[in-house]
Specification:
11 strands, homodimer, six-stranded antiparallel sheet, DNA-binding, alpha+beta
DNA sequence: TCAAATTTAATGTATAGACAAAAAATCGAA
DNA sequence: TTCGATTTTTTGTCTATACATTAAATTTGA
């Protein structure tokens, strides 16, 4: 293990273990150079990594301090549905329900997404061992992703297809709980009013909007997990 | 803006903007030194930051390449309920319902959390303008957080109190959709079966378990937002 | 011809030193 | 005393250089 990495994980451990509490001061770089018998650049590299991970704050002339935890952000593992299902030895499939190319409606969301072009509208079902796990309603900008108009989406879920064809994205995900109603409840094969986890996601490439998707998952069959801690700060 | 930061954000922009696609090769450090008229250490620092952000991969002898996006993790903003509510100009309050110190039950979760000691069990309501937003059921290890036994939790929600008193944490959050039932529906003042967002969180300090909490929020009044993109990678 | 040994191109780590920048601490004067 | 200027401490950035490490590319040998 490289020295800078050892210094970094040394302090990471002491901070996460509680030995160093928020507000505590760390030794100055000169002292750490002596303690570890290395150059200042090496110490600095280790401490810079801890700053990037949000574990410490550094102020010129004042020193280095353990940061007060700001737990308003965590790393959310967005599950790859297909992979997760197959991991449990079950069978995953995506069944397209409707697909059409149409102009945007009056909704501002749709107008912004279309950006003057058309929208590709895809509805589909996520199936586990043939039973519905979730339903998805997706809009894709035909201007931003022209290839999708002729693409074969029967095998691959559109989310996976997009990930493989659109170079890079920003995304915003909104998670809430709703009751399945009407057509959605019907497709899912449950009674109207059944609680579902609702995931809405908007995706951009730079300033250009790529897709909007609203997914409804059966509450008792699907959940999301987020972590905060060493595992999360590592990347 | 420091030079290494400029180089970093230069390439961040080109990658996120799609100009550099996944798999594309970046110039080698020597070329970048010339391009930016700086030393290798400066170029290296910039590229190392991009590696840490997951935007590029580097292989010795082979070079530097734009990483293929692995969108299985996003930054989840865990809302500070009180702050968020007050931001909208509404009134926030936490009302404790039950509080007792008791030995763990037979449930493995409770036994592990107690770690041989007792559990502090707190139930309470999150109120917005006097109306229930969510109900919370919390267990705290009395061994890990002895101060909580005598603490005054009438004003402050226990989650906030813990954040201020327990030095640092790892946490795991599980999000799902459930129907409010029985006592929970009653406290929330809704019909049994109403969809709620269920947030379960387990918190550690090192190997020691601190708390377990299960929160039920009314689905139509509460949601969570996660981001992926430059804003997220920036910290 | 194919596999093993060698070369080489690229990144990874580290050093020692220099100057810049910020802010706490100290000192001086009104 | 108190405000303002000066000093000092600590981090921030950068350079030039050295050697280590890895894996792709090439050469060598049976």
């Amino acid at each position: 293990m490289p020295l800078h990495e050892r210094i970094r994980s040394d302090f990471e451990g002491r901070i996460l273990g509680g030995e160093l509490a928020p507000g505590d001061r760390l030794p100055i770089e000169q002292e750490l150079m002596q303690e570890y018998g290395c150059s200042r650049m090496t110490v600095n590299k280790a401490l810079s990594a801890l700053v990037a991970a949000g574990l410490i704050d550094r102020r010129k002339r004042a020193g280095t301090f353990v940061a007060r935890p700001k737990v308003h952000s965590m790393v959310l593992d967005v599950p790859d549905i297909a992979a997760q299902v197959r991991e449990r030895g079950q069978d995953y499939a995506f069944r397209p329900l409707k697909r059409r190319v149409r102009p945007p409606g009056e909704d501002e969301e749709e107008v912004l997404l279309a950006g003057g072009g058309a929208l590709v509208h895809i509805d589909g079902l996520h199936l586990v061992d043939g039973a519905p796990l979730g339903v998805e309603f997706r809009l894709v900008s035909a201007l931003a992703v022209p290839e999708i108009v002729g693409a074969d989406l029967d095998a691959v879920p559109p989310g996976t297809w997009l990930l493989q064809h659109v170079p890079w994205t920003e995304a915003e995900t909104r998670i809430s709980a709703v009751a399945a109603l009407g057509e959605e409840a019907e497709w899912l094969g449950v009674a109207a009013g059944t609680p579902c986890l609702c995931v809405e996601r908007r995706t951009w490439r730079g300033a250009e909007r790529i897709t909007y998707v609203r997914q409804l998952f059966l509450g008792d069959a699907y959940d999301m997990v987020a972590r905060f801690g060493p595992g999360a700060s590592g990347r």
